[in-house]
Amino acid sequence: MLSLFWISSVRYPHPRKTDDFEKMVSLDLIKSISRPSPTRIVLVVVDGLGGLPHPETGKTELETAKTPNLDKLAAEGVCGLSDPVSPGITPGSAPGHLALFGYDPVSFNIGRGVLEAVGVDFELQTEDVAARGNFCTLDTTGLVSDRRAGRISTEKCAELSLLLDGQVIDGVTVLVRPVMEHRFIAVFRGEGLSPDATDSDPQQEGMAPLAITASSPEAGRIADIANRFVTRAKAILAEHTPANMILLRGFSRKPHFPTMNEVYKLEPAAIASYPMYRGLARLVGMEILETGSGIEAEFETLTRNYAKYDFFFMHIKATDSAGEDGDFNRKVAVIEEIDSRLAGLTKLQPDVIVITGDHSTPALLKAHSWHPLPVLLFSKWCRADGVKEFSESACLSGGLGRLFATQIMPLAMANALKLDKYGA
């Protein structure tokens, strides 16, 4: 195993072999010392928070935004930078969030299809294989010109999903359900199916959809059926431009995870408007709170339910959408709106506030990236570190150093006085 080492002039605390590190933060260890208490933790996940400097200003989206409330929390709390998986690894949304919940994102890997299905309350059967789908646009040469079909409306997605639903291919029924905007799920129900299939989504525009292939000997059947389904979908959608094709990814089966109540002794709740994130929260045992769309609605939901739970996960999606669209100014505006709502959060006086992201989505890249994320932890028990603003460059010198995202949850628990002493 390689030892942890100096990266970007910030050293991981207590360098150790990777296998020793994993033992140190195991859920079994946390479970053995966690205890219930009346204190409350609020984790705000600003999706795609991290960015890159704009070539004209030299500032990232977060550094450009006016964030007096975030800066005040940073000045009174402790800050750092975190890696969702490992330095250089670009995380998907699922591993990014699982790490924030304290689950090793490598050991607890999960496919996007299951997350979307659970998020829309689809009742998955044991042998079902679910895939996340995008309606997309193919140009006249057969290349993907828009992976999201112009972000068609959810109503249009429902209409098109109905056209694809219920096909039977070689004894396997394909159940299609809308999710949100251009997203849908395809659930393959039948015998002899394995989830070990590759994606058809090339993850970039200007390329043709990929053939789905088996990544294990048992997956030949699902690969064949999925490719035939995609071929049929292309024919059905031919006259429905911009949504004239589909892309599939994240073939998976529903797993079993230990719940946050089992591990942390928490009564956790999730506030998220996008189905995938509700699904992920449900898989780790969170109560899903009904909320309207938009940042204001989510903060109002927190206020209404604050007395009922002792852990809140609040997910804000709009930053990631702006980053993926390459809209630097819109991402700045979303960050400023989040900041404007923080007064309502601090008024509740949570014992611990954690603000970070699940991954970076720089507008300059229009995609997820490997860059570490700023993280802020505020509590009456933390040691303020001299950081005066919440930004990538300021957090670089913060007291938390550069840490793995899986370390954030134990720190939050400790600052909420929810962990007993370890050992004699």
Q: Radius of gyration, rounded?
A: 22 Å
| Number of helices, counting only DSSP H or I runs of 4 residues or more | 15
Helix content: 25-40%
Class of the largest domain, according to the CATH hierarchy? Alpha Beta
Mind telling me the CATH superfamily name of the largest domain?
Alkaline Phosphatase, subunit A
How many strands, what sense, and barrel or not for the largest sheet? 8 strands, mixed
Integer average pLDDT? 92
Please give a structural write-up.
Helix content is 32%, strand content 19%. It is an alpha/beta fold. The protein has two domains: 31-109 and 258-415, Alkaline Phosphatase, subunit A, CATH 3.40.720; 114-252, no CATH class. The strands form two sheets. Strands 10-9-11-1-12-13-2-14 form an eight-stranded mixed beta sheet, sandwiched between helices. Helix 11 packs parallel to helix 13 and helix 12 packs antiparallel against helix 13 (328-347). The longest helix is centred in the C-terminal third of the chain and has 20 residues, at 328-347. It is globular, with a radius of gyration of 22 Å.
Brief synopsis:
With 424 residues, this protein is of the alpha/beta class. 32% of the residues lie in helices and 19% in strands.
Question: How would the blueprint of this fold be written?
Answer:
Elements: H1 18-24, H2 27-33, E1 41-46, H3 61-64, H4 68-76, E2 78-83, H5 93-100, H6 112-119, E3 129-138, E4 144-146, H7 154-164, E5 167-169, E6 172-180, E7 183-189, H8 220-236, E8 245-252, H9 260-264, E9 268-271, H10 275-283, E10 287-288, H11 295-305, E11 311-316, H12 318-324, H13 328-347, E12 352-356, E13 373-379, H14 392-395, E14 401-404, H15 408-415
Parallel strand pairs: 1-11, 1-12, 2-14, 9-10, 9-11
Antiparallel strand pairs: 2-13, 3-4, 3-7, 3-8, 5-6, 6-7, 12-13
Helix pairs in contact: 6-10, 11-13, 12-13
